[in-house]
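Sample entry was shown:

___
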Amino acid sequence: MEEVDKILIRALKQVGTEVPEEVESVKLFSSELVVEAVVSCLRVIDPGLGSGLPASLPPGMSARFRVGMSLAQACQDIGFKGELGYQTFLYSSEPEIRSLLMFLVEKLPRGSAESSDQSSGKSALKGIAAAMKAELSVPWLPPNCRLPLYAPTQGPDVLHHFHMQPLSLAHGPAGTKLCKDLSEYQRDILPPVTSQTSHHTCVVSSLLEQHTAECSAAQEWQSEWSNQGLLSRLTPQEYRLRKRCRLRQRMDEQLRSAAQSSSESASHSGSDLSELLQAFKGCTNEHMLAKGSHFTHTQKFTFTQEAAPCPLPCTLVSEGNAQLQQQDELSSLQQQLQQLCSDLEQLTSELKSRSVTTAQVLNDINKRERENDEKHAQIQVKKKTIDLLPQADENLLQIQDLVETSARRVVSLATQWEKHRAPLIDENRRLKEICRIQDMESSGKLSEIRSLHDTISVCTEEAKKKEQTYKQLVSELDSLPQDVSRSAYTQRILEIVSNIKKQKEEIIKILSDTKELQKEINNLTGKLDRTFAVTDELIFKDAKRDESVRKSYKHLAALHENCNQLIQTIEDTGSILREIRDLEEQIESENGNKTVANLERILEDYKAIRQENSVLAAKVCEA
């Protein structure tokens, strides 16, 4: 039992029970420690059931009884079949506690032989999930309608727009090796992700957008490769290279077509546009020269002033007149600009209409040229027929000869073609059959490749799960105490197994001896019964005639009866000895159950309950 208790104590420590170092067996467990161990196991086995149970006993006796009853009911709910009640926890006995703890430890989840770190991690995750659920359940309210309760979760400093910015992450495409310069740039110069955004609130949204883009790109590539890449019978690198070349060719074609269209439009409208610009330039120069500018006006004014001086009041111009003159000039220039813009729009519309008409005219010209070519060909045919009309009979004979020779030639060609056609048809059929077989094989191999891809994906998922379990087991192994060696545990297990084998051999030997003794007893009993029956029959025949034989018959019957009584007495003695041994074992078990100590504790608890009842009765009377 010592090894079993050590295993139980180690399992209880792993689920979070604080077992003191001096406690090395279940016999030393107190009631508080038993309650704490049971509640810890229940919280790991069924969190919903164990979360409502207290991990320690309350001070009041009535509350202790209620806690004991709730613990017993919880253990029975998860499948414990033994006898269980409040007395198991308050007045614990070693066998009952050991069997209960063994049941709970066996019920613990295998995948999470949960250490204290893992239990705390799970509780932290549950707390985070509960907090997020509570925040999501809070309705949104306008700022004017918010209560102080919702201010921390609905304030303007908590809510942000989902604004993302492009990030540069320090990794390359999957399966590729980075060059030296790029790796040095990522290691020495590339700033961290939190420094690449303009504001710290954009970091999470940018990372989510980057991750979503990478995941969608990977899924699109996987679907494209499984649908089109496998059918091309190329490697992924060759398929990507071919796709890149096709994209470049399409871009080159688009650029060439755009350049050709722009050159044609420029050649058609170049002359008209140059004329339009020349006309626009001429009219603007004339208008500008006719109208003049403020500089020309001031220059003329100064020259006229120098040529013909006027009296002093006429030469001075007020500032108000100069501003009015500038405004008039500005309004006239604006009107002129509007007129020019309207003329330019009119000219552009006319240019567009003329370009359309020129395109239509070019189409008509091309169409008429094609019609002229067709009519010219018809005219040539008719001309040849007219030239042949004067010698119609000779020409007809020549035509018939040509037709006959052409017919004979066609027949000979047909026979030659038939000679060549049969082996070609056979070859074509053979090649088609080969192609059909190859297509079937390729389709079969393609289906096998797809199934292999599916199995590879499944295997990768299983490998990831096994890698996670491996890391978890390694962390658990690192958290376990390293002072105990595996060889010691192995040696103890081997010693226990050898002791069990010896006990089994002794039990088998005792059973075989018991069977042999029982067999000898049965043989002797049968032999005795047969001997008594024969003797009784012989003596009974002679007892009818002789008085002395009759007395010997009576002594024989008395001897047989005494022997039966003696055998029965021996059997009763054996049964009494067995009962004595059973009673001694029960006395030892009762001594191990600490019955006297439990009775004393029960009396103390009874006195405490009576005292609590008297205090409550006094309070009721006072009320």
